[in-house]
Each structure stands twice: as structure tokens, then as C-alpha cells.
Design a protein that fits this description.
Structural class: mainly beta
Strand order of the largest sheet: 1-2-5
Helix content: under 10%
Distance between the termini: 23 Å
């Protein structure tokens, strides 16, 4: 990734239904890799998903990671976000 490019942070949020104390609920979060693309106004003039490793995390708050997964994008490519 070029140092001169700035990429906004994207926040995906999901909320459980109202839970009683001690109860739990499984929440499934899905998205297409293309949803991680950012607009390259300088060069491509299009949405681009850049090559690299992206760490996707689920957090209880801004400081505590519950789970995470690495997504590897093998080639930089222009894309159309859905």
C-alpha cells in the first residue's frame, strides 16, 4: 500500500436482540471482500481493493477483541462495491 494513500476505517456493527443476564446469542456477519474497497481518486479513479492482509475483528468495545480473522487479497484490482 502506498504511504501517500489514506484509507478511511470502515466500521461494521451488529447488535444482538435484548438478552437477559447470562444469556447469549450467535450473530453471523457476512460481507463480500469488495466491500473493503476504497475510492482511489488519484490514480484509478475507481474503487480499488488493494493487495494485502486485512485483519477483520469482532470487539466487545474499542479495546477488547473477541475474535478476528485475516483476509488475504492476492491482487490489487478495481471493483464496484455492492
Amino acid at each position: 500500500m502506498a504511504a501517500s494513500r489514506r484509507h478511511p476505517r470502515t466500521w461494521l456493527r451488529s447488535k444482538t436482540k435484548k438478552l437477559e443476564p447470562g444469556a447469549s446469542q450467535t450473530v453471523k456477519i457476512e460481507f463480500d471482500d469488495d466491500d473493503m474497497a476504497s475510492y482511489d481518486q488519484k490514480d484509478a479513479k475507481a474503487y480499488v481493493l488493494e493487495q494485502g492482509d486485512y485483519d477483520i475483528s469482532i470487539q466487545s468495545d474499542s479495546h477488547h477483541v473477541i475474535d478476528h480473522q485475516k483476509v488475504t487479497v492476492k491482487d490489487t484490482s478495481p471493483t464496484i462495491p455492492t
